[in-house]
Amino acid sequence: MSLLSDLKPATNAAAPWTAALLTLAAGVMLLASAATPSEPTRFVRVMQIEPVLLIELSHFASSVLGLLLVMLAFGLRARLGAAWAATIVVLLVAAPLSLVKGFIWEETTILTALAVMLVPFRRAFPRTARLTRMEVTPGWLLSAVCLVAGAGLLGVWSFQHADYGEMPWWEVMADEDAARSLRGWVGAAMALLAVGVWRLLASAATPAIVGDEDPEFQRVRAILANAEVSKPTSNLALLGDKRFLFSASGDTFLMFGVRGRSWIAMGPPVGRRDERLELLWQFRELADSHAARPGFYLLEADDLPDIVELGFAIQKLGEAAVTPLEDFTIEGTKRGNLRRAWRKAAEEGATFEVVPPEAVEALIPDLQRISDEWLAGHAGGEKGFALGGFHPPYVQQFPVAVVRWEGRIVAFATLWPVASLSAFSIDLMRYVEEGPRRIMDYLFVELIQWGREQGYAAFDFGMAPLSGLDDRPLAPMLSRVGRLIFDRGEEIYNFQGVRGYKDKYDPLWQPRYVAAPRKWAIPLLMADVGLLTSGGMANLAKRPAK
């Protein structure tokens, strides 16, 4: 008994792949059986006791059930509980059909035995996603197409080389058998076509999330206000487009977005340091139970040990510019242009102020005007997920730095504070083409001085995408492609310009990462991040007004 208990975890671990392979073999067996000639002696006996219509229907149904087993094998490999139950049902239905269609008792025995073998392994298939949420990959679909095509070719070859003797009724039976096999093969092909259409149109449905409901923002605000570990980007939790997973104590949360089967955590957990790893595991297990594809976006170097513990693949995204405030100065030859731009703006009448959150509501009309004018001259619309958007309830939750000129607001930036004062950053940064030139340099210099007075250690200027990637012969393929885009993709995005602009503030360049369970999933994850951030293909393709 002790030995069986010790072996149970190992058998449960091996059960999904083993069951998938055996179910795939059973499906191939039914497809091949339906496409090849019946055994004449057995078939004659079946015809003596059964109506022809029942034989025809069982033959056709057996072929379609064979294809269903092929497709269900993928669900078994993915450890779906619904696939386990459906496979047992299909096996138990197909087993008696093998007797009805031609008294093929060997098939009945194999199918029944496989169903009995699967019954004790329910716990090896813990995922609770419905079969309609099952991800059918293009590779698996292509394999199913090849199997159905192979069954059809096997049937053609079999009937061309079959020898039914010289008795006339055998020839009649052979002709009917060929038509019956052709109908079964066409049925399987049509069913496969239906699966392909479903895969194309409907298989990207968003999985439902169970557990904690999205909380009131007061709960999130309380954690942000007292978090032991947080980043400036943690304030994106207040944007209103995230889902949350909370620790058992309620002192830590992880925020994530959902697009199709991708569950993308925006940064690491926020709150207590000692609860981070457990919450990361909970996120992965919750996504796994829903057959979702988990991922982490915008991780920092100190997050990687926990991500490695999860077994995720990691890819560098770019580098973020973080300027320490203690020793920063605009004096000296190196920052002469920056100093002159700051002084000139001040001489022309620019003034700087940080408005506290409770006073921002009164400024919303002016800020909205600036935001609308700025958006009209830039590609895309309002952002989300990884970037903030101008939504008044969201903007009013943060301090806002404003620059006035001749009594009017001409530029503003919403600020992301953190409880630990380790760094602060800006979110929205918008201005109009009036007032002094290089007004944003004036804003940044004033913000650095403000941050130093507030006790912040650094100013996070945000990320320069694809910056710092290597194009070495042995570098990862994604890094080499990213470096190529960084060097040659200025028509797509001002990659080098963003890096150059932030570089004049003499920052420390810190790497940022994305992580997924497998390396090949990272491009899919990044595509979903782009669509979540831009608000869909329509906003992604939107061009600025001339």
Q: How do the strands of the widest beta sheet line up side by side?
A: 1-2-3-4-11-5-10-9-8-7-6
Structural class, judged by helices and strands?
A: alpha+beta
| Helical run tally | 18
Cα-atom Rg, whole angstroms?
32 Å
- Report the count of strand segments: 11
Share of helix, binned? 40-55%
Report the biggest beta sheet as strand number plus sense, adding barrel if it closes: 11 strands, mixed
* Helix-strand string: HHHHHHHHEEEHEHEHEHHEEEHEHHEHH
Mean pLDDT: 77
β-sheet strand percentage: 5-15%
Give the uncertain stretches in residue-range form: 159-175, 200-214
> What is the end-to-end distance?
78 Å
> What overall geometry do the principal axes of the alpha carbons give?
elongated
Relevant terms:
alpha+beta, 11 strands, 546 residues
Tell me about this structure.
The chain has helices spanning 2-35, 40-49, 52-77, 81-102, 105-118, 138-161, 168-201, 217-226, 276-289, 304-309, 336-347, 364-376, 392-395, 439-454, 477-488, 495-503, 521-534, 537-540; strands at 243-246, 253-259, 262-266, 293-299, 313-324, 351-355, 400-405, 408-416, 424-431, 458-465, 508-516. The radius of gyration is 32 Å and the shape is elongated. It is 51% helix and 15% strand. The protein is an alpha+beta fold. 38% of the residues are buried. α1 packs across α3 (52-77), α1 runs antiparallel to α5 (105-118) and α3 packs antiparallel against α6 (138-161). β8 (408-416) and β9 (424-431) form a beta hairpin.
